[in-house]
Fold this protein.
Amino acid sequence: MQTNLIVRGTAPLGTLLLVLLATAFSARVLATQVIDVRLWRAPDHTRVVFDLSGKTEHRVLQLENPARVVVDMDDTSLEGLLTDLPLANTPVARVRSGIRKGTDLRIVFDLNAKVSPKIFALAPNERTGHRLVLDLFDDQALVEQKPSGGQGPITTKSVEELGGRRDIIVAIDAGHGGEDPGASGPKKLREKEVVLKIARKLESRLAQTAGFKPVMIRDGDYYVSLRGRRELARKAQADLFVSIHADAFDQASANGASVYALSTRGATSTAAQYLADRENAADLVGGVRLSDKDDVLAGVLTDLSMTATLDTSLSLGREVLKEVDKIAKLHKRKVEQAGFAVLKSPDIPSILVETGFISNPGEAQRLATASYQDKMARAIQVGIEAWFFTHPPAGTLLAWRRTQQTREYVIVSGDTLSEIADRNGVSLRALKATNGLTSNTIRVGQTLIIPDA
């Protein structure tokens, strides 16, 4: 900033000094400040986010001997210290800062492993101000160009030695994460934390059911882009993608759980459109470059395969909604549809479950409890299993079991598993194995396959 100072007359020297100091101070105040620095660890990269008071010109350098990444910001100052960043399990050994050329900020990341840095700026949106995002990709991860996602290796469909008995893969997506907390409720309750707990409980439950194998899309506090979530599900060869969220509205009275599927012809309600718009904007908050955003799936969404996928999504979503109705008030009594970007997989049935309104004090209180989280996870699990038991994909263990069946029995009040086995002349062990049961727990209305005696 250029300042023209015009002094007339013979002002005292002290006055001139005060004017010069005030001018220098005001120029400094107008410089960009780094208000906060946050660091997140994802499975394949480390993300550093700089919250800025305004725009800044920036550069990133990668130096060797010793290995370090350097970020320079023009005419920028740093508030606070960099000593409390969570560096455990990251390739960063230390972070330090200094001033160069009098007004420029230099931040140095000393490394203990090879990385490939990428840096980009994000413009303000309705929830955040200017940000500068530095991604330090693990060297091997970048070479393989893995999308960000769940911890550990991606699970692929397992096939038993006898063949034709693979598991049904369910991709479980905990919404938001990392830089994007999602919606917020009373007492600093955050959507990203609640839905991750529900997702983990769902994972645990499905893992105990023979014939199912859950895969977590996000298994920690980091952000995965909307497209990245779909790519991880496809890489896992998922038979189903279920995204878990907690709704929010500017009126605290809004309440109820709901289930959504994709729409290619507009939303089924104003509320569904509002929610889709909010969820689709998550990438802007989560820190995704504009170049990473989806192209319109031109042509694909009208393909016959997409039509079949949507039909499956709606049918399966109705089973889940029916089970959720048993443990929570519903916001809508049918599966709603809207253009959710995270559901746009042309070949994977996909649903989005809103577990309740985190903006509603009463529902927020329930969402914060482990018991309600477990009830919600169980409702989603039962709905998923109910649909796949009657519509098993070809080549799966469940499909093979249906070819072995001779009868079906619907459980009524008072039934026990051992009594059903005795009445039908089969062993309890065979009855449980045929139906993928790991305990003797059954529920009214559940359909059992009775194997040959």
